[in-house]
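Hi F.,

I've been meaning to write this up properly since the lab meeting, where we talked about keeping a consistent format for the predictions we share between groups. The idea is simple: the sequence comes first, exactly as it goes in, then the structure tokens exactly as they come out, then a line or two of notes. No screenshots and no reformatting. I'm using this chain as the first example so we have something concrete to point to.
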Amino acid sequence: MPNNPQAKKKSGGIFYTLYRKVRFLQSRGTLFHKIPRKYRMKTRRKNKRAFRRFFFLVRIPTLVRWRHISRKEERKVTGAKGRFHSLLPEDLQSHKAAPVYKQPVKTQTSGTWRKLRFLLRRKSLFRTQKKEPARVKPSITRSQIRRRQLRFLFNTGKLFRIDRKVVATRFRKRYGYLGTYDYMAVILNSTAMFIIAYVIIWFFQDISSVLAAKTFNISSIVYYWDIDFFIRGDDWSKDSVTVVFGAPVLTAFIIMIFSLVIYSNMLMESWKIKLLVLWLLLHSISQLFGEIISGAILMRGVGWVMAFMLYTDTLKLVIIIMMVIVMILIGVFITRFLLLSGGIFFTNLDQSSRKPFMMSQIFLPFIIGTFAIFFIKQPRLTPFELLIDASMMLVLLPAMMRAEYSPNVFFDEEPRVIKIYWFWILIAFVSLLGFRILLRHGVII
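Output, unedited:
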């Protein structure tokens, strides 16, 4: 083997590296000697194999005293870049004698030693960390799945097919109470009151408009769908338009105030007339605010007053938005009044009976009564009246939604007998039929 170390390294390779390690262990005196028992760590028998692996990994110099020198000093002496030197020179002089193991001094320990000790105490030094399986991204998205489902239903002809059994089962589960006698009686009685209240409101509004026209010597003819004034368009003045077309709105406002006061005084009573007063209040609200909304949109009724007042389109839009907001707020605050009308037929309204009550006494009578009025006014139904009558929905929908979260309502414990009031139904039918027959050809006033 050549004497030049570079030549040895080039010629030997791996064997030369092994040779240097053996020479280092022999010079230190630890080539054929075991570590004394007193320097071994106390472990349990079951961890004996683990500790053998641990001491195999841990280098011997970490168990002896270290000498900390500065980086600058170490570079001058050894040229190394580390912060710690290896064994002291006086320790290396005794490599030929028996191995000497010195007690570790409590100085700054190595970071590697602390990590290994921590892992050893947690028994996770030789434990492999379980890797979570990687999440496989779906090949298709939810929208693509829905498209495929719709395409499958369309190709099989089931997309627009209605399963009657499923629909009937769900309807019976949600609205089966409507087929009972009690709720059917409530629906019929409330619908009759709805129609009677509408005829009363319509009568007073038309009479006020005709009387206001008489103050300006304007004759008129009243039909069941409209009022015709015998006057030319150029003869209308600002005052006459304001009085004649503003009178129905003012009349609805007066009826609303009177019905609100009367209904407030009979809240806890179980009189049948209370339901009529409640529908008068709701009709007056829709005729007041609904006519302002439809008049601003269609230029009919009170819309002519806005036109003669030279209102701009922006101002009309602001008025429409304000009226819509007001009607929604009225529906929110009037919920208590609607629930208190249940004292006519029920002794209490709990969570399970509030929704059936609101459906049978408020919402369904409004739907049935509105369609009955639309049918009577055919074929002369105008969009102006259609929009006014439908505007009550802005009041009822917020009230229906808030009623589901309202507290329970309790009335007196007197037993109620729910029955159909045929007298009120007969009055409603006669008034609606007379409204159509008597005013079919018009009445001149």
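Notes:
Confidence is low (pLDDT under 50) at residues 59-72, 74-108.
The CA atoms of residues 30 and 99 lie 6 Å apart.

If this format works for you, I'll send the rest the same way.

G.
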